[in-house]
Amino acid sequence: MAKTGGDLLIERLIEWGVDTIFGLPGDGINGLFESLRTHQDQIRFIQVRHEEAAAFMAAGYAKFTGKLGVCMATSGCGGLHLLNGLYDAKYDGQPVLAITGHTYHDISGSFYQQDADLTKVFMDLAPYNERIMGPDHVVNAVDQAIRTALGQRTVSHLSFPKDFQEWTTSDDTRSMPNIKGHTSVLKVSVNITPDLIQLQRAADLINAGKKVVILAGRGALDARGEVVQLAETVGGPIIKALLGKAVVPDDSPYTTGGIGLLGTAPSQDAMEECDTLVMIGTHFPYLEYYPKPGQAQTIQMDLDATHIGMRTPVDVGLVGDSKTILQALLPLINRKEERHFLEKAQERMSFWRDLMTERGTQSAIPMKPQVVPHLISPLLDDDAIITCDCGNNTTWAARHIQLRGTMQFSTSGLLATMGSGLPYAIAASVAYPGRQVVALVGDGGFTMLMGEMATAVKYKLPIKVFIFHNNSFGQIKWEQIVLEGNPEFGVDIQSIDFAAYARACGATGFTIDDPANAAGIIQQALAHDGPVIVDAIVDQNEPPMPGKITTDQAIALTKALIRGERDSGDIIKNIIGNQFSEAVATKGRSLLTVLPGIGK
User: Which end of the chain is less enclosed by CB atoms within 10 A, N or C?
Assistant: First the structure.
């Protein structure tokens, strides 16, 4: 019996090991859905409420499993909705295949309903971007799309005309050069090691360094043991880019935590003082946090040669996967007996941890946002998966969630888009039904795709969603004030009773507005066997300031206060009340010592 184009696509996905597709049905993909129906014992379909969420879920699925993420949407509007989540996957280097419908092949381009040429729309997004030209084209296109997504760790796109989905191979005429069976399912290893000359050059620079710092990103997640071994050998701290938060546990004596606006002061101190920088699987984007050009000899390891030297001058570039490179490099590294640089970083980190504990145990009302993750962290399972959205919640999660064991963590990295936290959590729970999954999100980001809470209920996914409810696009507010020197504008958002919303969706809802009750409610929420929303009402004037304040940032804040920032009194009160001890952990660079008129 001849197979339909839809059958050929779904069966080839199954041959490649695809077991899950996230998407939303539509008439432009009805042929594919019929094949999904008849193959549902081999491949599962997770129905979403918005296609953007399907793309985020595919990206999250790829991040947490290391496998190909797949999403599907109908022609025109459905495919367009995928774009944000797919760019998130592309920018964070995740293999994702997007499958979209298209109008009937013989009226394409005639402005028929939903006749958007998605292959043109996806040109910037997907290195492999192809329209299916008939049933005999399906296997070739699917194979090359998946090879590209996995091989380049990027997004591939297939646009499938509606009528071709239902055509069979008997309706099609295979061309002479399209020999049946010429393409195959084959997953290729990407374990690449540079030559010995390059490795020795890198080792010589590291051996010559007296103050070595390691900057580890998501590309080092599979090289945890090797990264720690390198840190121990060179006596240097491990600084973690946000997507590399799980490279080493947060209580490791070798790490100073994160870097950047949501990083730690000890990490920034180490960057400013190092003479050698080893970058492993990262192209952390914020140039101002790197050593000054000429300050440090730099070695960079990355699977993508185009990332080498992108952010800071590099003396030796090693192309390949981090684990394989480090295994070859470590025997060439001499152990440094001088540990003063590491010990100084550890001393500073001790002060910083005390400061974070102080911030996370405040009893003030309105409740400080740091209280929520500070209480959640010790209650998490050793293999929990934590997601967060982009906003102020990212700062609180990065600083107060302490990873340990085999925990996983992710957020939207280079795209830094709002709305990803909830879909990521759903994807993680689909992939690992027995593991604890917790999402930390802002009220702004959550409301973008809040309909997906119904998806969690439908599939009985016991995710726990903690919403930092401050009635504001909080990070944008602080960017306006601290980075631009302007009073806030356009950032207020209408309040929603999220606990009531949870119940309306069929989930369980809790509300926290008093730190005295927070611990008990959080414990109850985490213990509940089902999806939960915890609506945490927090102080919108708590500043998510960088670990170390620059004079320019302090001046910008002062300008905003002078020019009419409406919450000036509360902001100043929070600065004075919460940051008096920061100078200890940041060598005097707290707001109290930098901010004109406050530190006197």
Answer: N
